[in-house]
Specification:
The protein has 282 residues and is of the alpha/beta class. It is built from 8 helices and 12 strands. It folds into 2 domains: 1-38, no CATH class; 42-281, 3-Layer(bba) Sandwich (Glucose Oxidase, domain 1). The chain has helices at 2-29, 125-130, 138-148, 170-174, 180-185, 194-203, 225-231, 278-281, and strands at residues 41-45, 64-72, 78-85, 93-95, 116-123, 135-136, 155-160, 191-192, 206-211, 237-239, 252-258, 266-276. Helix 6 packs parallel to helix 7. It holds the Pfam family Cyclase.
Amino acid sequence: MKQNQALTLAGTHLRKNITLFLACSSLLLTGCRRPSGFPEGEWIDLSYDLSAQTITWPTSEPFRLDTVSAGITEKGYYYSAYNFCASEHGGTHLDAPIHFAQNRKSVDQLSLNQLTGPAIKIDVSGRAAQNRDYQVRVADILNWEKEHGQIPDNSMVLLQTGYGQYWPNPLKYLGTEKRGTAGVQALRFPGLAPETAAWLIKNRRIKAIGIDTASIDYGQSQVYGSHITLMQQDIPAFENVANLEKVPVIGAQIIALPMKIKGGSGGPLRIVAFVPNTSQSD
């Protein structure tokens, strides 16, 4: 009897998630007008804009916008157009599995199903505030689950370190203003411990993982163990995610659509969260 009840409850949650995802897609396609029957709630932009102030990895090229035209043409109408140059891994972006795992998926090969769906958030900002080298531990996940239950299958895991408050100040956000190899050696910010990444792969079924720092591995990492562990299993990472303090610990639905670069190891990411009103999400 208990097993049947559990299956019924799981089926109900699955139907709710499918309905909400289809509604979210419909909302985007209709120009953000709320269609009839669409649940009331809030959209949260989790992406930083791209500009000359965008934080990039110390060895990456900064974002650049070059003007092609911006003004009144000889025929009397206004026309603006620009060329841009950007790193795959600058600003809010996605790391595709091939970034750290040979023969795994490139950014264009990730399915829409893997880039959309329910999310949970684990907040370690208190510990990270005391230690720039903090790495999210298995204990952090287990403590979260004691309060909220086991991470549901096919969830996205968002890690809030609190370092988003420092954007776009590179010294406070990255721990250094240096560029090049010297900048990489001086990086100081929190991340996910490799052993925690391995535990997640072994014990939970997740679609993707995101963090409000420049890397899923902490700044002083030398071998990028969390990247390797996750990406060998075709799990992408979202980095430099904005506004995580606005996302609830449970209940948000994520749409994370990167620039579709054929064969790319990643790309600029427009990621948003939809949080339905509590009364409609129960």
